[in-house]
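Case study 2.
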Amino acid sequence: MPLLPVSRNAAALTAVGLSGTVVGSLAFVSFVDARLLLQLKSKPGVLSEVFPVWWPFGRDWMVPLLASTALSNALVYYLTKDAWWLVSAGSALSIGCYTAAFMMEATIDPLMKGGAADEVSNFTKEFCRRHQPRLLFAIAGLVNGLSLLKLQGV
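Prediction:
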């Protein structure tokens, strides 16, 4: 069965590539979108129009990306029996769980609804602050996957 090692390599490269895409996506939010949102916090009317359009597009990109990243890393674990791949799978899952647990009710839902100017400004600052750990989770998953590729000689 000479295809099996190739399948493992292809699966590992796909998993790490998806982890890199998660990092890139969240880095863009950190260094571009969050800055834009912070600039708009002084214009709650504009922010109240932008956020309800922006957030669903981001969610619709990130949910399948996080799911496919977690599943692809779990597949590599299944193929290799190397439990360290589950760290990268867990990293992707933790981003979604963190978003649901620490951002949804506290910052996302209020920004989707709009409100008084000072509330919108405060929720915007809090959203941007709470976003940052997600990028760190993603970087941890990518670094783990890259080190596993190196160790496995892929």
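The first helix runs from residue 3 to 40.
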